[in-house]
Amino acid sequence: MGAGLSVTLGLVGLPLAAVAHSRSVDVGLSTQDWGDWLADAGKAAGIETLFAAAGGALGLGLVRRFRRNWWAPASVCVVGLGIASLWLFPVVIDPIFNRFEKLPPGRLRSEVLSLAQRAGANVGQVYRVDASRRTTGTNAYVNGLGHTKRVVLYDNLIDNFPDDQVQSVVAHELGHQKHNDIYRGLAWLALVAPAGLFLAQALAERIGRRAGLDDRSRKPGPAALPAIALSLALVSFGGGIASNLMSRRVEASADAFSLQLTHDPAAQIELQRRLAVSNVADPDPPRLLQLLFGSHPTTLERIGMGESWARKR
Ligand SMILES: [Zn+2]
């Protein structure tokens, strides 16, 4: 049932995804032809279907077993899955889509290590990913837990951006490591998951009347899954808005850390400008969109931060 839902929703969304791909080819952001794109979409759909099937079975099992308060064991599962996926994604799922290489010994690697030393941050491994096989966009991120902890830099960044701007990016990612943002993200999940799932249960019991979800003396069958999935989706949407609010603050603080470490606001400002151009991003998106979906401060805000840091010095 979970698999069926996932495939159906995937098929419904496919035309929209195709339009998005065709537009990103038009503006020069995507480097994939239709064959590559379809292969990626197929792989992603396969993985999603697998997860949906497992998630659906697990979810329904919990609902049937803990008829009154399934939200409680479900929150424990959500946090457990969050930890497992942070730990395993970089080594199990990510390599299905891209090639990751450890930075070879050389100037960039030494610069990264010396920045990390100055920052007093445990950087984990630093990888270069072949993002250019899919996009001309530029990015970098931290992920992983324990021994899978890593900083990942897009090849587009390493190959096309000047040294001082690459350092500004690396310093920002080191800020995330130094502030333990991944652990703080997990703590946030542990905090909001129980509340969110409590709400989702209440919602599912209203939406899923016809499948018998409101009657706590009955064990519902697979017909209850769409109502549960819809409730989870609605609650996640709300949770996502709250998480973005937190994320914007976390990102601003990583920017501040980067400025403190590099003392180079000019590089930070030029970097933000070039990132926006390379990612075809709106430097100053509509207020409401930024409030709901913005995971980072806007480009203008980030440039403003560099300007005000420079002025204070
Ligand atoms: Zn960041």
Architecture overview:
By secondary structure, the chain is mostly helical. It has a domain at 1-65. The chain is 70% helix and 5% strand. It contains twelve helices and four strands; from the N terminus they run H-H-H-H-E-H-E-E-E-H-H-H-H-H-H-H. The protein has helices at residues 2-26, 34-65, 71-92, 94-97, 107-119, 155-160, 163-178, 181-207, 225-262, 265-278, 287-293, 299-312, and strands at 100-102, 125-129, 140-143, 150-154. It has a four-stranded mixed sheet. Strand 3 (140-143) and strand 4 (150-154) form a beta hairpin. The longest helix has 38 residues, at 225-262. It starts with a helix and ends with a helix. The model has no long low-confidence stretch (mean pLDDT 94). The site of zinc ion has 4 residues, from helix 7 and helix 9.
Largest sheet: spatial strand order? 1-2-4-3
Task: Give the overall silhouette.
Answer: globular
Radius of gyration: 22 Å
Using DSSP, what is the number of strands? 4
Mean pLDDT: 94
The portion of residues assigned to helices is 55-70%
Give a quick summary of the entry.
The protein contains twelve helices and four strands; from the N terminus they run ααααβαβββααααααα. The chain is mainly alpha-helical and 313 residues long.
Which properties best describe this structure?
4-stranded mixed β-sheet; 4 strands; 313 residues; binds zinc ion; mainly alpha; single chain
What is the secondary structure topology, with strand pairs?
Blueprint: H1 2-26, H2 34-65, H3 71-92, H4 94-97, E1 100-102, H5 107-119, E2 125-129, E3 140-143, E4 150-154, H6 155-160, H7 163-178, H8 181-207, H9 225-262, H10 265-278, H11 287-293, H12 299-312
Parallel strand pairs: 2-4
Antiparallel strand pairs: 1-2, 3-4
This protein binds zinc ion.
Zinc ion binds at residues 172, 176, 251, 254.
